[in-house]
Amino acid sequence: MLTEESRRRSFPSLADRIYLNTAAEGIPPLEVGEALQAYFRDKQLGMDGRQNHFRQLEAVKERTAELFGLAADEIGICSCTSEAYNLAALALRLREGDEVVINDLDFPAGVTPWLQPGCPATVRCWRARDGALHVEDLVGLLGPRTRLVTTSLVSFFNGFRLHLPSVVEAVRKHSPALLAVDVTQAVGRIPLDLAGADLIVSSTHKWILASHGGGLVGVPRERAGAWVVPAGGWFNLENAFGPERFERAVSKSGAAGFSVGMPNFPAIYAIRAALDYLQTVGVAAIAAAARPLVLACLEGLTRLPVELLSPRDPVALAGILAFRHPKADEIAARLRAKNIHIMHQAGRMRVAVHGYNTAADVEGFLQRLTEAL
Q1: Which residues make beta-bridge pairs with 317?
Q2: Which residues constitute the domain of residue 98?
Q3: Which of 279, 305, 321 is the last residue of a domain?
Q4: Is residue 359 part of a domain?
Q5: How many structural domains does the chain have?
């Protein structure tokens, strides 16, 4: 990534396999492993190691802010996107009559908090047509009672890439709703323009090539008052150890309120190293290198007897392609026997192309898939 030499140096585990499953699990560069060792060395210092821990945390906030187009103090770190969305549900304090818009291309983390029996809001589903979400279909779901529209920028299901400016315009014009955007399948893979998003979340173990245990949260300063998480804890509180600590708890507003306890410092070290690595390579360079591979894969799939689930419009794609076949399990097993790694679930197969993939990876995958079919 992006040369054969740097690929061998940072990703030696890819030498003898075709790995096209980054949308599920990214392969971290060796620099991330070195960062985890650095955490262990700092942890052995006991309390003296905390200074280094918190330096790493501040560095992660700065680098995440650069990716999200925010300032460092508009970034919070939690454990995962599921935690972020559940804390967001607490912050909204929804009531009977409120409405939340989800969509059927989204990951469960962003959908299910609003479907729980304890959520009093009415849920409306923005449904895809031909593998894509159309803004005109969203408009009909918006109204004065809409409190939240939540969506992924890139769908985990089929790779559909949302045109965010059009969504922002529709939400602002037709409702007073907040807009939450999950960038898990986009950050680190394509350059981001998140202007207009009121809440930004991402996991850390996929395209940014870090570890599990991290959830990146961004809240623009002007929206901080809308996201005050009423959760117990200490790291998220204004004065957790003050003289009134047994009388009241006051949560920090905005992104800081999503970090309810001691940060997961091993994950923080890994995230910092991964973001440093991506910054050195350049997300724009990754996108430019991987784009032809995605298009070649798309073209190859359209010639095969599979049901393409992804949009055929290249503009609506980032790094994921999905398709369906009645014998998906058997086909995936044949591919795995050839050391080709893709995702398969309930008849759906999915490939994901990152900067460490090569033209030979795509050609090898299409050749073996053709043979398996």
Answers
A1: 160
A2: 33-279
A3: 279
A4: yes
A5: 2
- End position of a domain, from candidates 258, 279, 300: 279
Which one-letter amino acid corresponds to residue 249? Answer: A
25 domain-assigned: no
Residue 316 contacts residue 187 (beta carbons within 8 Å)? no
Predicted TM-score (pTM) of this structure: 0.96
| Confidence grade of residue 2 (pLDDT, cut at 50, 70, 90) | confident
pLDDT of residue 305: 97
Q: Is 62 helix (H, G, I), strand (E, B) or coil?
A: helix
Residues 292 and 265 placed together within one structural domain of the fold: no
Cβ partners under 8 Å of residue 182, min gap 6: 81, 106, 107, 109, 110, 150, 151, 152, 153, 201, 202
Average pLDDT over residues 35-44: 98
C-alpha distance from residue 15 to each of 26, 240, 361 (Å): 15, 50, 11
What are φ and ψ of residue 120, in 5° steps?
-80, -10
End-to-end Cα, the chain, rounded Å: 31
